[in-house]
Specification:
Blueprint (H helix, E strand, L loop, with lengths): L7 E4 L5 H10 L3 E6 L9 H11 L4 E6 L4 H11 L3 E4 L5 H10 L3 E7 L3 H6 L9 E5 L26 E5 L7 H8 L3 E4 L4 E3 L2 E2 L1 H11 L2
Parallel strand pairs: 1-2, 1-8, 2-3, 3-4, 4-5, 5-6, 6-7, 7-8
Antiparallel strand pairs: 9-10
Helix pairs in contact: 1-2, 1-7, 2-3
The structure holds the ligand O=C(O)c1ccccc1N[C@@H]1O[C@H](COP(=O)(O)O)[C@@H](O)[C@H]1O.
The ligand O=C(O)c1ccccc1N[C@@H]1O[C@H](COP(=O)(O)O)[C@@H](O)[C@H]1O binds next to strand 2 and strand 8.
Length: 213
Amino acid sequence: MRPTMSPLVKICGLTTPESVDAAIRLGATHIGLVHYEPSQRHVDLRTAAELRKRAGPHVKVALLLVNASQQLTGEALSMVRPDIVQFHGSETPEWLTVVKRLTPAEIWKAIGLKDAETLTRMQKYHGIAHRILFDAPAAALPGGTGTRFDWSLLKNHRHTMDWGIAGGLTPANVAQAIAETGAPLVDVSSGVESAPGVKDMDKIAAFLKAVGR
Ligand SMILES: O=C(O)c1ccccc1N[C@@H]1O[C@H](COP(=O)(O)O)[C@@H](O)[C@H]1O
């Protein structure tokens, strides 16, 4: 069954109060803050906490971590207090189970969707992650590269967990991605930027419009 409501939209990699305000004003349901030093969208924990406060109750705020240590994860959770922790590295189900005991936040796990076997292997997160986020397979960086995965891999997949798609989505292709996959949530970062790490308000508006928000 394809969803009939407009998909949820997460605008990820926000780094400034202006971009947080704009994403909320334009109708995003979720925003993402990246705490991962190699990323061009990295924000330190103090900034992440300020942006999280600024967002208030208007959207769900995801904090994105990549293979963070236990100490960093604990610090990040207590400083930022996100609604969601998005794990975008090779975090195991065992580690996610540990984190679930530390926080009331939802746990999302990004999966690099390479082939049909990936869909079988990811079942190990069933009952542990609250949502699976399908993204392009990791390359030099684990995400935020504007690379798409093969959407047809999801065509007849019977989802057993809440899920969404990410990777190379843009205002121009997101409607087709939703039509092909039936995604209930779409997540975008580089596709709504004018330069790496610089969000473009017109592109955010165009993306949300294309999704029907
Ligand atoms: O945004 C980043 O720099 C980033 C770094 C490391 C892991 C994930 C990252 N971003 C997330 O990757 C997907 C896809 O991004 P894009 O739209 O293709 O640029 C999305 O969830 C980003 O939030």
